[in-house]
Amino acid sequence: MYFELPPLPYAPDALEPYISARTMEFHYGKHHQAYLTNLNNLADNTKYENASLEDIMASTIDNEAETAIFNNAAQAWNHAFFWKSMKPGGGGDPDGDLAMRLEQAFGSLAKFREQFKQAGTAQFGSGWVWLVFDGNALRIVKTPNAQNPLAENLTPLLTCDVWEHAYYLDYQNRRPDFIQAFLDHLVNWDFAAANLSAAG
């Protein structure tokens, strides 16, 4: 299998002004592509060349000798999931079962947004902030570097990339402003609701 850059679910400029086409050119076109290029080179002629990203992550996460394979596979998976976690005209509050479960887990939608922003802001260095389903309830988790919640048997519903390359061209060092824009204008609640429904 040759791992290819998946198409964006929207045009590169569709998230403006909250994420610029220039940021997407670098983030999607260069960073995401680089993870896939590296993974193809590392997986070539190994047992991983025909494996899925999920299988590669599961097989390499605890193997120090295969850290590079894990990092590139996980970053490829995380980024593909991140693009789907956003949509033009997104943001605001969800409705239906997802809204009810968020209110149950966090007290209110406003408290969820506050805690999600705090978690993403508090992630030291590079990483991700996620809304996940643990089989019983919704939770917010943050992961460093390439890690993601699949390693803990959690179901990701949506994510926000808080690596600097995700926002620096548009927000410089203002990570909280980027996360706020993600929540207010970009988050794809339909994608999160579909992931929750599939998880049961």
Structural commentary:
The protein is mainly alpha-helical and 200 residues long. The chain has 2 domains: 21-84, Fe,Mn superoxide dismutase (SOD) domain (Helix Hairpins); 96-199, minor pseudopilin epsh fold, CATH 3.55.40. It has 8 helices and 3 strands. It has helices at residues 21-43, 53-60, 67-84, 96-106, 109-122, 168-171, 175-186, 189-199; strands at 127-133, 138-144, 155-161. A 3-stranded antiparallel sheet has the order 2-1-3. Helix 4 (96-106) packs across helix 5. The radius of gyration is 16 Å and the shape is globular. The model has no long low-confidence stretch (mean pLDDT 96).
Determine the strand fraction and express it as a percent band. 5-15%
CATH architectural grouping of the largest domain? 3-Layer(bab) Sandwich
Contiguous low-pLDDT stretches (5 residues minimum) are none
Q: Report the CATH superfamily of the largest domain.
A: Iron/manganese superoxide dismutase, C-terminal domain
Can you give the mean pLDDT?
Answer: 96
Structural class: mainly alpha
Percentage of residues in helical conformation = 40-55%
Strand order of the largest sheet: 2-1-3
List SSEs in N-to-C order: HHHHHEEEHHH
Shape: globular
Query: What's the total count of β strands?
Result: 3
What is the total domain count?
2
Rg over C-alpha atoms, rounded to the nearest angstrom: 16 Å
Summed up, the helix count is 8
Question: What is the subunit arrangement here?
Answer: single chain
